[in-house]
Amino acid sequence: MSELSRRAFLAASGLAVVTRGSLVNPSSAWAAPKTGIAAPAFTASATTGKALSLADQRGKIVVLEWTNHECPYVRKHYETGNMQALQKEATGQGVVWLTIISSAPGTQGFVSAGEADQLTTSRQAAPTAVLLDPTGAVGKMYGATNTPHMYVIDKVGTLMYAGAIDDRPTTRRSDVQGAQNYVREALQAVAAGQPVKTPVTRAYGCTVKYA
Amino acid sequence: MRLRITVALALTLVLALVADVATPMSAAETPSPLVRAELLSETASIRPGETFWVALRQEITPGWHTYWGVNPGDAGEPTRIEWRLPAGVTAGEIAWPYPSRFPVGIAMSYGYENGVVLPIPMTVSGAVAPGTTLALRGQVSWLVCAKICIPEEAPVALSLPVTAETTRPNPRGAALIAAARRNLPVPSPWPASYVATPETVTLSVTARDLTPERVAEVWFYPSRWGTIAHAAPQRARLEPGHLTLEVERGQLADAATTPLDGVLVVTEQLDGGLVRQAFALRAEPRPASNARTTLRALALALAGGLVLNLMPCVLPVLSVKTLALVGHAGGRAALRRHGLAYTAGVLVSFAVVAGALLALRAGGEQIGWGFQLQSPTVVILLAYVLFAVALSLSGVFTVSGRFAGAGHALAGRAGYTGSFFTGALATVAATPCTAPFMGAAVGYAVTRPWPIALMIFEALALGLALPFLLLTLVPKWRRFLPSPGPWMERLKQALAFPLYASVAWLVWVVSQQTGSSGVAAALGGLLLVGFAAWLHQTSRGARLTWRRAATLAVAALVLGAVALGPLTAAVSSPPAAARADGWEPFTDARLAELRAAGKPVFVNVTAAWCLTCLVNERVALRSPGVTDALARRGVATLRADWTNRDPAITRVLGSFGRNGVPLYLLYPAGASGAPAVLPQILSERAIVDALNTL
Predict the structure, then answer these.
(1) Which residue among B24, B257, B440 sits closest to A17, beta carbon to beta carbon?
(2) pTM of the model
(3) pLDDT per residue as tens digits for the range A70-85
(4) Contacts of residue A28 in chain B, CB cutoff 8 Å?
């Protein structure tokens, strides 16, 4: 009985949390954007040389994928074909998939536009576009700490998911089979207009090589 | 060794270069590892049926780091071992020394540089035959990072002979493991709580023995990702006896409602240089805006007080008081005044007890609700009072000769004082009982500033006083009482027996607290009280001089009895002998050890003076069904006995938002799972169900 009342206590103090989404989050160097509110707006240049902005994607579900092709965790998902399969599955359903490279020049994973396109071809990847963010401005705006670090944004621009690609934080290729893929789950929920069951997870991988 | 470091350094350079020209690099292509792993043992031999410690030692190339297993931070991956152990040997979880931090831009990693020794408990079954040699093998995998990260893995192995004799030491392993143990977080001696806003988390630690001038740095390493922003600065404020740490909040939404676990590393500037200490901390959430929760706690306290009326400690006292209402002839006003006097008695005595509790806690004492019963003197005095009341119910003596019966006494002025003290008595008698709702309310109260805490205790008091108060205030309700008759006298006499039983139980409590000499003193005192009661009554019909002499004698006897009480306090308490019922005495260290060994653990926080606890033990904990289920699931059982004062146990209670017993905790197997808190009123079914979820 007292356990019940303890839970009731927690529920009462949880009210503060429920109203959280309606508050405007002050920007800060450390706070990652919260899920459930508008995803930060950005414009970045794609490997095609054209500028691409998030605002133009309204009406479509958007996936952001931070990457660094030399990171062992990224390689796990590309060398097993896991990432490419998810990209094809998503873009096939009209999802905009943006792969973002925030490695600063001279650091691991930094590539020119040509090299990036070459990687896409050689790895048979299927993103809608690859964005170059050598200053790390977009990455820091999203609090992207890892490669891979994944985000899902719904059709009206609300951030619905932020975190890991799946629940196996390892570099073992055999772990891809049977993993719970959070991004796929989030995409399915968003497409069905339902809340994402796990909106935030700890991303795993290498750190993003900011300047 | 030097050669290896040179090679490693050269390799680091090569890797950096390779990274610069953006050529893929993986572990398979790495010619030599950045980390050398080795398995150590504390002993050179092992004995069947014992737990022994091994350790994984990592020698890490300078400039690189491996990760903390509890929480690697924003990136990274903890070191893991996949064991291949011979039959009869089981490995526990790694005991992680406190980490260092490695900031990488907006991310933060927690881990180790240069080298680390990770202790691991191993258990060898009694069935393993002496004379054999056991080969412990494992495949260790880790991630090692500097600017870039490399996953590595290596096999480790160790062979240990099994002997029947005492184990032989292994000096090198023992020295390294002993050094590593000094870096393991110890349970924090300080109560902690935190307040979360949408942007920040403020950790508040009652760090009594911390001298602000000496503290060079404090850092909180959370056990779970997403509770705080790892990379954000931690703003520490140190005042004498208190530490607050403000940091930006993490991304998890439930971070504001669940206990915050982590390791607090305090660096102090001492004469010998910098000294680091790591404390395993659990902070309970404290709501930032508390008006709502305080109201809730007040409501819970009121409900708890109401239910207290039905508890075996209070019911007899109250029934007698209610009997006095039956057939009462006095005016309504007089009745109302009795009700109010009784209520005042309850409120005032609650204020006194709660005030003392809060004052002592503010003074740094680790005590909780029911603390007064931790003193054998108070227990003995309570036994005297209950004994005297019981004697009077039995008809051995009457309190006042001026009024013929209880009904008349109610009308007199002395009656009001009587009502007041009945209230006080009800309060004192109520302390050993815990009613439902009370635990959460009292636990919440003691974390609040004193005016709010006192309000909650008074709500509890009001709940206790309310039924009687209403009977006196609303005349209509008295219609539900039966009509007067000779049955009243018999019922009154019968009600003496629960009180005698309470006295017998209190004497047993004294025996638990002080041993046989305390019992002797208590029984002697009861004898004096009995004699005084008889003398008081027999001398009533005598001449004035005799009456005066008798009054003096009664006063002397009562004083004598009272003096016997404190005598027992001087008697040292008996050693906490392990009772032969399979329940081990609780210590933080023992709990940590059992958990490190991967065992599920049931902790029973109890006290001899806690009636609710004793009933739970009798009907649920010691029932064959529960004993069976505990044994079947290999659950280790610990009893934390709070009969006497024990700050360590008070801290355990505090860390679960409680301030009184009973408390039942079920820790799942594995060192990291949070324990389940079982209800305060137990049933066999509830425990077995909880065990089934293990």
Answers:
(1) B257
(2) 0.55
(3) 999 999 999 999 999 9
(4) 199, 248
